[in-house]
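fold-stage: in
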Amino acid sequence: FYIYWSVKPRIVLLGKTRSGKTYTAKTIVGQERRNSPDSATETCELKEVCVAGKIVKVIETPGLTDAPEKKIKAELQHLVYMSAPGPLVLLLVIRLDKTFTEEKNTVKFIQENFGEDALCHTIILFTHADQLKEESLDEHIRDTPDLQAFTESFGGRFHSFNNKNTENRSQVSELLEKIEKMVEENGWRYYTSEMLQKTQRKKQFCKCLFIGGVMLGVTQLVLAPITLIAAGGAAVVSFYRFAKNG
């Protein structure tokens, strides 16, 4: 088994705190699982391993989807540095042994913090696959309408790990095959650090611009010029260059 990649594979693990990101990283790199709780990662951590003849970088992030805004901004900057020139894939880690509820907001989180383009670079990675017992993952998703709709938001791309069985390397090789297929469908264009930085700049501009206390959205920024009324005067600001170049 050999996978051809023209770039060094860089995998970023995203997800809520205690979703199983740490054990997932250990499974990918082939590190033995200890009989201890899945400790919460405080900051981005990098691991490397040789898989299918390639050095794979695995970057584990803290629980960004439920973190304060200041923490998210700091860790995204850290992520840009560690994954340069950008990750090949974003793995969204979700537990199968928990009720699927708040995960619906994850799509919005990725769009706001990574940009719309990030969705086509994302694969959902379900942990605790041993909880399915006799039911297959495909059957479980079909029987859960909310979960099915959620996976379709990411092009129906998903995989599962049994992190209790780190010796099962086939689940890792199958994941890498799915990553390669996704990258091929994307024309070998991976998610770049520039995309992330551009999204963060747009997000910052959106937060700073108000008219009468109402925040302007990205769509309004693109429809520049905009007239801002402030301190009894009018200021006309053109955002054409910003919308064009980020």
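fold-stage: in (second)
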Amino acid sequence: MATTLLTIGEFSRMTHLSVKALRHYHDVGVLAPAAIDPSSGYRSYDTGQVASAQVIRRLRDLGMPLDSIAAVLSAPDVAQRNREIAAHLERMERQLEETQAAVSSLRALLSGVAPRPMIQFRTIPAVTALAIAEVVRGAEVVAWGAGVFAELEAALAATGLEPAGPFGALFPGEFFEITESEVTVFAPVVAAAPGQQGQPGLQGRHVSGRVHLREVGGIEAAVAMHPGPASETDRTYGAIGTVVAERAIGVDGPIREYYPDGFDPAGDYRTEICWPVFLTGLPG
């Protein structure tokens, strides 16, 4: 059967893909022309490629990355193709949920109805904990945290250590200022007395994988509970930080979070935020 070749302009008009887009799709390996003139470099397309181009345009309208589109087009069978498309639709649904949550949060801020949290001042004692500390970028911290929590839970089960409170995390100032720093997630445990059988070990002892046993120091803190998704904790941070700044009681040190309901990146849960302060500096 004879092949009908089209100029790139003709193919553009038939598929509603711009010439610039078609050249880019060729460069990145998504849609190669049927032929290229060796002397002029002109691209020609086959009428049989129209359907593929139409699929590409619709997938791009849905925001699918080009590497995913290439995987769809090169899928060995319909089942694999559908899995690639379904995975992208799931990503879109999560993005839509995040957008809806951001819109609701912004409307609450604009209306001025967002309640101010109750802020307490208290001393948080030092604890022995299983901990993982790694340098993390802000955009990756939620996904990183989900894996870390699972690893700490597995380490707790493997060691048989008794939990001594909810999981927590330490966020140095650099994490917020340059959106990258070492973040520590920890699981407080009941430590045996020195010399007692089953004593967990010395500070910094390696337990498994990324997990080490360490002491998380005590602090004096301004504390507030944030109800809701992690994406909105800035409101509670702002409220606590305002009180600390107005009273001039802030001290250096990482801000601490505790997760009494566990850590579910996709759900609503409570986050206890602890801002380090100098309590004896409080007015009488």
